[in-house]
Write a structure and sequence with these properties.
Elements lengths: L27 E5 L5 H8 L3 E7 L2 H11 L3 E4 L2 H4 L14 E4 L19 E2 L8 E2 L3 H12 L3 E7 L8 H14 L1 E9 L10 E9 H4 L27 H5 L12 H9 L19 E2 L16 E2 L9 H8 L10 H6 L3 H19 L1
Parallel strand pairs: 1-2, 1-4, 2-3, 4-7, 10-11
Antiparallel strand pairs: 5-6, 7-9, 8-9
Helix pairs in contact: 1-11, 4-5
Amino acid sequence: MQRVQKAKFPYEWNIKDGYNFVPYHGSTVFSTFACGGGSTMGYKMAGYNVLGCEEIDYKMMDVYLINHYPKYFYLEDIRTFKEKNDLPQELYNLDILDGSPPCSNFSIAGNREKDWGKEKKFREGQVKQVLDTLFFDFIDLTKKLQPKIVIAENVEGILFGNAIKYTQKIIKGFEEAGYHTEYWLLDSSKMGLPQRRKRVFFISIRKDIAEKIPGRKQTLISKMPYLNLYFDEKEISFEKATKKYWELPRKKLSEKMNNYYSLCKEGNSFSSVHEKGSFFNCIKINRNRPAPTLPAKMDCIYHPYIPGEINIKEAECCFSWPHDYKNNSKYIMGMSVPPIMVANIAYRIYEQWLKLVK
């Protein structure tokens, strides 16, 4: 197996200390569906220049602006953004186009097929959208901007059951746009994050750029130049990552929930002790393992031995989120991509691809 230089990105850090984790190279990125800026921070950690973002939720955009000061920002639907004819020239010369199209319709914990094709409001104040078609609007934008590389993140459920048909359509869409595409199912706990969060990353490279990468063996699946995205970092336990914050305030449990909490063993769901098997999503963290996947609503994820929800500082460690992020919330983190997941991927892409075609 090919070896690549390891870049150890921290799960605990502060923006005020700067993004000095690897040498700055300035490869350009534009982020769509930017949310709270998790992927933006990941690219900055990996030495990139994030030019700006697109986001439909004005509340998320407000938080993004006060933390990232983007050169270009667009508060609008991806469906109207992709039709703009006055975009700056820099966006037509991107190294990476990034995006995390809303993925709740593919989540294993969601309604899946029952919601496919239906218009939904993802957040208060947004227009109605058919969430499972937004990925194809993102591909339309790819076709228009023609970046060297595209990175798109989604939930692991997009690979299972009937959803695999969407995956096949996605790959075909990128192929028609002029890109070789493959996907990786990655586990954040193998990438230096004290959280077990599995996410699918679709990575596409423009065909003419792929041909310029010297000495790269093509894969059998898509003729994409080989990309080493194998990660096997030692797991970081919840206790190791967060113990110094255990005495900070946290939201307490109701008397009813406290009863289930006392009966539930660490690492288990409350359904294991509920008389009807309910409260499946309520989980008591195992202190000796990474935290489980933390959802946007973290009011169902509980501390290993202090009855109550995890507090904001514990959540920041589990997401590799900076402690000095302005106007932060557990919801913002739960909706975003953990920065060091993107940092690890983006660093490998620069080292193995972009650096060779500069």
